[in-house]
Every structure is written in structure tokens, then in C-alpha cells.
Write a structure and sequence with these properties.
mainly alpha; 36% helix; flat
Length: 171
């Protein structure tokens, strides 16, 4: 089958001509219009190296500057810092540990509770008494021709020579 020149051209990978790269990257004629990153952007773009005694993560306890500690809190901060008032009838959470009273120590379970507390034991009906016993039907069974064919092991010809394998396959 003949392949057209166009198909051959489309099948080839396309390479960009690196010398024509300057055509796509346009610079303004006035050098003051070239964008320049600020000092902060330059500093943030550089990787941060860990000092010997420094961790990558900030401490949980942050140091409070002296100016902030000396400044009085605003009214809004003081209002937010007050705990909420307890409403009437509020009950504090109870302890998880309960005391056992003497009334409960003399308790005896009913017969029905005793019956329900026993674990259920199910007997397996399919388990044979003699696991090695063979049924009479299995002793008199005969193998079908297809089962005999399937049960024959498949010889492995991978290690044999090609000539011996061909002879063995013909027999």
C-alpha cells in the first residue's frame, strides 16, 4: 500500500525550531517596562534552609511582644473573654463512675434472664462422625471417559529439546 507524502509528514514528530524562540517571547523596547519582581517576592521564591537549632514548625506557645502585653484590652475583647452565664436549672455533668448501692448487691437474676444470658450453641448437621470414612456410593463409582482425560497430568515440554517434544507429541 502506498503512503502519501502528506501522511508521512503527519506521522513524523514535530520539532520546534529553537532559533525562532525569540519571535514568540516579546520584550518591550523600553527597558523600564520589563516586569521585575519585588525584593519580597525574590526572598519568598528562594528555598528556606533549616538552621541547626530550628524546627520547620512554629512553637505552640507564641511569644507576645512587650508592646502588646502592655496595651490594655479593648471592651470588645473583655466582653468576649467573660464566660457565659449558667441558666436556671443547669446541672453539671455527672461522674462516669457510679456507686453500687446496697440495694443492688442483694439482687438475683430471674430464670428468664439466666436463660437469655447463656450463649447459643448450634450443632453442625453436615459434620461427619468419621472424617476419613468413605461412602458406599463412592466406593462403587466409576470414572467417566472425560474425567479420566481431564485427570491425566499435562506434560511439561519446556525443558525438552524440540525434536524430542515433537516425537512425544505425535505419540
Amino acid at each position: 500500500m502506498m503512503v502519501s507524502d502528506r501522511l508521512e509528514q503527519l506521522a513524523k514528530p514535530r520539532y520546534q525550531n529553537l532559533s525562532s524562540y525569540d519571535e514568540f517571547y516579546l520584550l518591550p523596547k523600553d527597558p523600564t517596562l520589563v516586569p521585575v519582581a519585588s525584593d519580597r517576592i525574590d526572598r519568598l521564591s528562594k528555598p528556606r534552609f533549616k538552621k541547626d537549632n530550628e524546627s520547620y514548625f512554629r512553637s505552640i506557645v507564641w511569644p507576645i511582644p512587650d508592646e502588646t502585653a502592655a496595651r490594655p484590652a479593648s471592651d470588645h475583647t473583655l466582653r468576649l473573654a467573660k464566660p457565659k452565664a449558667l441558666y436556671e436549672g443547669y446541672q453539671f455533668p455527672r461522674s462516669c463512675i457510679w456507686e453500687i448501692r446496697d440495694l443492688n448487691s442483694n439482687y438475683s437474676a430471674s430464670d428468664r434472664t439466666e436463660v437469655l444470658s447463656r450463649p447459643v450453641t448450634r450443632s453442625e448437621k453436615n459434620i461427619k462422625r468419621d472424617p476419613f470414612g468413605v461412602s458406599k456410593g463412592a466406593l462403587t463409582a466409576k470414572l467417566s471417559e472425560r474425567l479420566r482425560e481431564i485427570s491425566d497430568p499435562v506434560p511439561d515440554y519446556s525443558g525438552l529439546t524440540e525434536r524430542y517434544a515433537k516425537i512425544h507429541k505425535q505419540n
